[in-house]
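PROTOCOL LOG
Step 1. Enter all chains and additional molecules of the complex.
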Amino acid sequence: MTIIAPNLGAAARGTAATRRMTRGANPADRAYQAVVTALALALPALLLALIVELTINAWPSIERFGWAFVFTATWDPVADVYGAGPLIFGTLASSVVALLLAVPMAFSVAIFLTEFAPRWLRRPLGFLVELLAAVPSVVYGLWGIFVLIPFLRTVVVPPLKAAFGWLPFFQGVFYGNSMLAGGIILAVMVVPYIAAVSREVLNAVPSSQREAALALGATRWEAVWMAVLPYGRAGLVGAVMLGLGRALGETMAVTMVIGNRHDISLSLLQPGYTMAAAIANEFSEATTSLYLSALFEVGLTLFVITVLVNAAARLLVWRTAPGRAVGTRAL
Amino acid sequence: MTALVGMLSALAVLPLILIFGYLILKGASSLNLEFFLSNPVPAGQSGGGVAHAIVGSGIIVGLAALVGLPVGIGAGIFLAEYGSGRLGWTVRFVADVLNGTPSIIIGIFAWTWIVRPQGHFSAFAGAVALAVILIPLVARTTEEMVRLVPHSLREAALALGYPRWRTSLSIVVRTALAGIVTGGLVGVARVAGETAPLLFTTLGNLNFSTHVTEPMQALPLQIYVYATGPFPEWHRLAWAASLVLILLVFGLALVARRVAANRYGTR
Amino acid sequence: MARSLLVALIGSALALPAGAQIKLTGAGATFPNIIYQDWVLTYNKQTRGVQLNYQSIGSGGGIRQFSENTVDFGGSDAPMNDSAIAAVGGNVLHLPTVLGGLAVIYNLRGVSVPMRFTPQIVADMFLGRLTTWNDPRIAAVNPNVQLPRSDILVVHRSDGSGTTYVFTDYLSKVSPEWQRRVGRGTSVNWPVGLGGRGNEGVAATVAQTPGAVGYVELGYAEANQLQHGQVQNRTGQFVTPSVESVTAAAAGAMAEMGPDTDFRVSITNPGGAGAYPIASFTWLLLRKQYADAAKAGALVSFVWWAVTEGQAVAPRLGYAPLPPALRPWIETRLKTITAGGRPVWPGPK
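Step 2. Run joint prediction.
Step 3. Record the structure below.
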């Protein structure tokens, strides 16, 4: 294939002409198009099946509890009454904690890699961050249980409580398994995704932006701060939302460290629960049909939230880096 | 400021080094022949290995790749070659939505679709769940790779009288092959580490099993069970199994990178 | 090295007798998981052509997956209630396999003698009414213990669990407030604490959290050398959970059962001297009618083996063996299992 490449540049003449030339009289062409189209249609079919299946199974619960499901906090399998309030709260809260920690790091990685890092450092650093995305969730969980939590308990939390114990966020007894532990693990896990997309966004910023700022006498840092970042703002917000999408749906690592308690607490030191973790823990063991249905409704809720967040993220990223397959790979 | 950005970047990769360090520290010493070649012993006894889980993971992931890669690559080719219209936009958007769908949801989907009607847990159900995750992932990477092929190449082939399907397959796709393989490998590496979709599908097995219609153990599932268990012996096995899993996943990622680098020079 | 490994793996894969094997999958209770794993792996080794697999996913899971027909047999420490039995058309048999006690485990460094708990203390800790270890009420029954000032951190099960059922069944019997506010069930709406998954998860969390208190199956407590306390029974004695004290609890319950029993009896908070109050049978759930006679026959043979020969390992693993008087009753029940209208098991050889 490489043989033909060199002397054929001249043949390029825009795609419209190509299309006209190839519009298929050839039955083999039509068959080929039909096959790949059919394969592509598998995707919408899957999505549709997913939505239908979740909705049908969630229906008894939706019918029974209505909107109260989302707003109430009782999760009582004995009385067969379910409210997903704490799960939704826990999912959002752990994700927000994760983003607060992850965003500065992820943006730093992106800025460092695109603007400041010496050339020799870019590839290895990029690769390391990429590997961070390749670590399986369950391994993060294992590390969280045996390394992170003991470290938090002995080193981090005592001084934290001493200094900020009066804040509602650091009150109560520290169990180890907690919103804090869940948030930190999540932060580590979403950094590579946010960093990868931000890096693509920054790369898509035209160099004229930088050059104009530099020509006006700005330092390199000022150029980044005043020209590059504002230009990519929509895309960067999109990158963060993409990270949010990841954090919302992350399951195993969170299940292993967050404490799995149906409760709403402002304190980061207290155990919490997330929608994904509740499904992982309780799905195969729901004894009544309504219990199972409630878990499907949790799944549906989680699905709807992640779809909305991801859709928004994509539209934002596409504003600065059009058509990119955001989030399929890190860096 | 540059220093701050550099420091935060270093902080971002620190967990990777810590995790890898701990895996080696706590897992490497358990990697012996028994670990790789034997199956579990009853809880509370010492010894035993994860042969059943390693082989199980291989089978489940292999099957998922068998199902997922052709569909994903085909969909990717569609997106790149015919994806300029409304259908293309829809498929692209749906692929991205599916990519963002939590894997646990794919897991309960596979349970309702396969396990419940079939009346038994099976490796097959787990493979389907992983394939569902793989398809949109591979579709998008394939699309990107195929798009990178210069138009001139395609048009030259067409000018030489190649029909469109042959142009697409033997010129465009072949040129993009290294990239497609890379995308596929990265996708496979990612699903190989998935636990959540397997909880309600492959269930796990105490025995060595190669039958895809039966429950099967997988490495991530075994790590989850061992890590959350109370026996020090299980924890030891969990660390060792995690080290093996991560080496497999990183290995796939490295191979993928090598394939890509060979084709395109540096990235 | 890598090559020989591959050869060995392929070899072992090919060495499996293809097809001829009967595979049986069961899932459910974690409470008996230690002995079930032992039984299953031992039985697989000594019986040609049968391969059993048991996965501990919680008793709630055992009942659910059994009812969904996704497993060949279930395991549960909580009997199915009448509506759950009606939901499967009555096609279920509860067969007791062993007895187990629940240990109240805790993590208090520096406390070397077993703590003593009254029923009220246990209930109040799990209701969130007792919050520190050096509370005077705890001190009153533990005069010889130097109690730490630390907080009481309650750890419970996050999954649907028969262990939880037994524990909440006990608490409902001893505490009217518990009965009113929480009730009994495989999953309940816990007033306080955090959840661990499975007996393993609770044991692990307690072991890693100073000041924690939780409940696990006795075998787990012993296997992990977790600190566990004595609980006061109805006669006022503080009893250490052990094979003997659990057996004593069963003895009382036997009197209430007859040959026609469906085995669904609660033995928590029994009378009788030396009886440990938080104990229970654990059951295997089998169908009365199976589709596949070969599978059903193999399964029943295994169950019979487990309730006879298999009982020998029970004490070593921290379980109390079944009272021998139960055997003929179980035998009668197993003989009623049919496939295609025919009994699958003629009785012991």
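Step 4. Note key features.
The radius of gyration of chain A is 24 Å.
The beta strands of chain A are 75-76, 81-82.
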